[in-house]
Predict the structure.
Amino acid sequence: ADNGFGRAAEQLDKRVATGLDGVDLGHGDILIAAITSCTNTSNPAVMIAAGLLARKAVARGMRVKPHIKTSLAPGSRVVTEYLGKAGLLEPLAELGFALAGYGCTTCIGNSGDLAPALNEAITGNDIVAAAVLSGNRNFEARIHPNIRANYLASPPLVVAYALAGTARIDLSSEALGTDTDGKPVFLKDLWPSSDEIAEVMPFAMDPATYRRLYTDFSKDNALWQEIAAPTGEVYDWPTSTYIARPPFFDEFTVTPGAVSDVIGARPLMLLGDSVTTDHISPAGAFSESSPAGQWLKGQGVKRKDFNSYGSRRGQHEVMVRGTFANVRIKNLMLPAGADGRRREGGYTLLDGEEATVFDAAAAWRARGTPTVILAGEEYGTGSSRDWAAKGTALLGVKAVVARSFERIHRSNLVGMGVLPLQFEGDVSWDSLGIDGSETIDIVGVSADMQPQQHLNMRIHRA
């Protein structure tokens, strides 16, 4: 259909070479398929259904294409225990869904990178590749920075889509693939019945398994027990690129400090609606050219050891550089190109010139100039990520003025001393004609402010 994936109909069917043997790439092709620890792996019925579907597919000789990154990462060892007893781990592994670990993996961007040839094919040809996962969030660039179409599905559907290899399929009428005899295989041929699931369910309902795996954690985790755990009343901060004493502990007092009006602030970002905490503070991998990557490189860390923002959340130097650095965030302060698109990524304008958000914020701080963020509706939706507020504060942002806020992020902003202010009625930064060149005052700020209190914003045009 026209405008599918935001592309014209005549562009949807184009395919490009990748350089990998026998692999070309088109819009909607699935490159990541993950049964993740979030949400669905706590439901034994759907996990068993995934295993049964995999077993039927393997019996028909079906396989997932090797360039698709597949993984199984349950939330607990109980899941692999009952899948193993039911004989379902093996067929899942044969389709590529072997155990990758437990806990947050693909669902928070820890899937690992794609093959370089696939990344180059995507970025060089503007391909909208897809991921399908059984997690509960599919925000832009959360799963992988180069995968734009991310779909949430039940574990058995994750397996089915991996077999199909594309999100552009009607599972009710189109074949997932063919069997060893060349006959088409449809989802209905593989989908387990309620009776088939019920027959296996007793393996997941054994109380002894839960007691054994949850009662004595230390017995089965010798490596964890071997980790040195220093004791004492005061933490001895190491020299590390993973953890450091954050600056918001400096001059920490028992009582809150003085608050005052925000005078002479400059807009750092002009944002639209539904800016998530993943846009504000991404958790996944980052590039060597990013501010965080450049800082780690300067510390002698090799590219292969960068890890992710999430793994380095104890190091503020990384996290503040990652704030507003999501590769899909759009700062509407930047002018649109000839094709109408705006540059994505953590960029803004400083004295009329393009700069990273981190560099611009540092320059404003050096000049003693406060900054503000202006946004649309539903600002801060998604994960209750504390670094979305911490990073905002460390950049020097004094206020976020939006059409509406997600409740938890609004509270986190307050906790970090950043004013969350809401436009009244239908007013927005766009309706006020703000383009980022203005200087802004917020007056009426005081220590005895109350929720719903009115403040005044003065706009000084350039």
